Amino acid sequence: MKHLLTTRDLDREAAVRILDVAEEMAATADREVKKLPALRGKTVVNLFFEDSTRTRLSFESAAKRLSADVITFSAKGSSVSKGESLKDTAQTLVAMGADAIVVRHPASGAAHRLAHAGWIDASIVNAGDGTHEHPTQALLDAFTLRRRIHGADARGRALDGTRVVIVGDILHSRVARSNVWLLATLGAEVHLVAPRTLQPAGIDEWPVTVHALLDDALATEPHAVMMLRIQRERMVDAYFPSEREYGRMWGLTAERFAALPADTMVMHPGPMNRGLEIASVAADSTRSTVLEQVTNGVSIRMAVLYLLVAGVEEERA
Amino acid sequence: MSGLIVRGARLLGGETGDIRIVDGRIDAVGSVDPAAGDHMIDADGLVALPGLVDLHTHLREPGGEASETVLTGTRAAAAGGFTAVFAMANTSPVADTAGVVEQVEALGRQHGYATVRPIGAVTVGLEGRQLAELGAMAASRAQVRVFSDDGHCVADPLIMRRALEYVATIGGVIAQHAQEPRLTEGAQMNEGPLSGELGLAGWPAVAEESIIARDVLLAEHTRSRLHVCHVSTAGSVDVVRWAKKRGIAVTAEVTPHHLLLTDETARDYDARFKVNPPLRRAEDVEALRAAVADGTIDIVATDHAPHPDERKECAWAEAAFGMVGLESALSIVQHTLVDTGMLDWAGVARVLSTTPAAIGGLAGYDAPLAVGAPAHLTLVDPEASRRWSTDELRGRSRNTPYTGITLPGRVIATVHGGVPTVLDGALVDADTVATTAGGR
Ligand SMILES: [Zn+2]
Predict the structure, then answer these.
(1) Which of A255, A317, B220, B295 is 20 to 30 Å from A64 at the Cα level?
(2) Is B166 domain-assigned?
(3) Which of A175, A51, A178, A71 lies closest to A122 in space, CA to CA?
(4) Does A105 contact B at CB distance below 8 Å?
């Protein structure tokens, strides 16, 4: 594996391998010395064209625990926005010795372009590109699900038969896209819920069951419900009439939460709009995985960086 | 008087013959005996077409000289077999006054590679609010007859109605870039399964079709002429077909790229394939080809849109819309329509020369290759084939989408008003063309 750009081209074996390596990484976090020497002498560049403190910190922490040298480049408001092209920026970073570039970009396909345009030769990790994909988020979600379901016995397993309902702005959600492909590959049964206005074109061809109404999807008694963040400005573009109506029809309200099966997990990629897409009683319950997701994010990103940067070297040797 | 003899070309009726050009006009066609001092072009195996006319070119001058100039754009045109181009108004300053259109027209005349007919803006600054001085541009030395806000849609129905009515008084036509702006805010590619997967904002077919439907009804109501730029969907073809059947004075164009490429090209996020209107589904490509063959779509026009590398070497959403097309247009038409048996070479002459000239009010193209007509002609070798690359380009920009594709046909010679601009497949140098053209 040279790049991680989308979960769409991960097969089941590769996906399970990443989750298994992440389990190893998680195990080291419990040790006294948390650092591994795996990427000593390697340089990982975090190239962030879009603000995202939590994702940036997660990748920084992952790279540091692997002993890599970490350069963080916040391209927002720098020379990039003054006309330097994506190509120029990438070539500059490679000239600084980047072995891997973790890129976050507001435009869909930016990571794919960096990987495939022939401009540079470094490994590329997509840390979120526009409304396209966010593969490490999906991997950490799958990791979180697998751990909750299989506990200490999780290694080597996929998510066969796990029913996951993903709710909200599917149209603009990179988290939803990455989760759809990955969870389906891992054998999960994926249900998507959104008003018709927030369903992307071609959703009928996706390996999912689509519902317009949340209550129809919750009636399937899912193992997990993943609530996506809804952006308030979508109202202005007439995707839905009001926050109140959205919350009433597509929010995980206290009433809906109470009616869920007792072991249904509640997931959210964060940051949450409490009271809009998710009620506090759901977000703060023991069935919420929100904080685990953050912790697991570091393990997954360690696994991905390890497999891309150290793994490539193994293959070449 | 010495002349130029094209020897043994395949003429539009399919027969082989010679063409003698004297003093910028076609002097004789058929079996011609050379006079002393005549120059010869061996056209054995070549098809003789009337000089091609592009109703939709972006020459970028004034203001966008980093991408193209009148000189570089008309050199690209000549290399592609064109002898006349209609230059779109979205320059800087916008071609919305007599001064700007006269400047562009004069540059074309000075360089001599092709006749440059400026298109005037419909509204001041292409802003869609106030009519530009259409009458002044029509009465200027540039004799503007085609008006367009291309790049922008004349979206306001009242402005569109008035523009259609107003140009009727000066014998002009409105060329509409049909794109409902609210339905395409932030749009990046064809709305369909691939846009959903790639996370690129969709440009739905209905945003084009609804404007064309509105505009043909306005054209009927105002008894005016409407030309629809770059039709890109099967649904648009249906609307135009309906309008023509009803007797509405509408003409329509399609670009070469919409006759060949589909939205699948976006899969790699390579912005060379980013164009407006976007590349559509395979079903649309089929419908567009059939519509050219049956005459529903009247012409092929390039929408030649040069951009510097840096506007394409970036993320898709940040890249400019458009692709160059003058050098490749005839090859794409041969590939998609002639070699598929949908159009013969006389049909090519119709969609790439006679009809675009008629729509644009350009004289000298109504009797192709006839004795006495101005000598605008193109010789193409239909048996040639080229693996396309940026080396085939003659303009200032390199944003061609066809790199790596093998395309049929090659322009061997282009003659503009008796002046050879391409000979033996190569451009004649600028000084020679300017001097020869100026001497006329
Ligand atoms: Zn246009």
Answers:
(1) A317
(2) yes
(3) A71
(4) yes
Q: Which residue has the higher pLDDT, A36 or B263?
A: B263
Q: Are A56 and A48 in contact (CB under 8 A)?
A: yes
Our count of domains for chain B comes to: 1
Measured CA to CA, the distance from residue B88 to residue B146 in angstroms comes to 9
Which of A105, A110, A202 comes nearest B193 by C-beta? A202
Annotated catalytic residue: which of B303, B309, B339, B391?
Answer: B303
State yes or no: A82 annotated in a binding site: yes
**The two three-digit tokens of residue B285, written as one number:** 């490509």
Q: Is residue B1 part of a domain?
A: no
CATH number at residue B319: 3.20.20.140
Whether chain A has a CB inside 8 Å of the CB on B315: the answer is yes
- For the CA atoms of B309, B310, B311, B315, the dihedral, rounded to the nearest 10 degrees, stands at 120
B82 closest CA partner among B118, B107, B125, B50: B50
Which domains can be identified in chain A, with CATH numbers? Answer: 7-133+294-316 (3.40.50.1370), 135-293 (3.40.50.1370)
Query: ipTM for the complex?
Result: 0.93
CA dist B291 and B277 (Å) reads 18
B197 touches A: beta carbon within 8 Å: yes
pLDDT single digits (tens) A13-71: 999 999 999 999 999 877 777 789 999 999 999 999 998 889 999 999 999 999 999 99
Ligand 1 ion: Cβ-proximal residues, 5 Å cutoff: B 150, 177
Q: Please indicate if the annotation marks B60 as binding a ligand.
A: yes
Domain enclosing residue B248, as ranges: 51-360
Which residues on A lie below 8 Å from B188 (Cβ)?
Answer: 108
Shortest Cα distance from A203 to chain B (angstroms)?
A: 7
What phi and psi values does residue A232 have, to the nearest 5 degrees?
A: -60, -30
Active site residue B303: yes
Taking each helix axis from N to C end, the angle separating A53-65 and A290-305, rounded to the nearest 10 degrees, works out to: 50
Q: Which amino acid is at A17?
A: R
**Cα–Cα distance measured from residue B318 to residue B314, given in angstroms and rounded to the nearest whole number:** 6
Nearest to A276 by CA among A218, A317, A233: A233
